[in-house]
Amino acid sequence: VRTWLGRTCPPPVTAAEDDGGEAGLPQDSGERPDGTGRQGRGMRPDAWTPSYASADTRARGRFTRNFVVQGSAADWALLMLAALRQSLASAGMRAELVFFQHDEVIVHCPAEEAPAVAGAIRAAADRAGRLTFGDTPVRFPFTTAVVECYADAK
Prior knowledge:
2 helices, single chain, 35% helix, 2 strands
């Protein structure tokens, strides 16, 4: 499967192909919460395999459905951040991106720039939506909060 912008999902692996790394991706230690090891050559066949690499149809299906949704959201977020940086720089603002995680963006700026920065965030979100998904009647709710302290942002 692919995200809306074309990023591909890692393929599943079979026991014969499992060499501890999938498609060049680093793997976790393979320890399950119960302390047992991971599946691989010379290991127990009932050992745990991460869902993205699973040949199990149900686990793989859950992973691939989630990959399309979460991956497409990440595509949108990257374009939104790029549009926001471009907008802030071209407007000559002193605002700086200081944090981004999942669906949260924190921008630090002088108080007098706050209304313009909030507008730039909304405009960047709209632009990213058009770039990612084209013209669509679907709207992506995006809220902003102007606060004195990061802890007060909700």
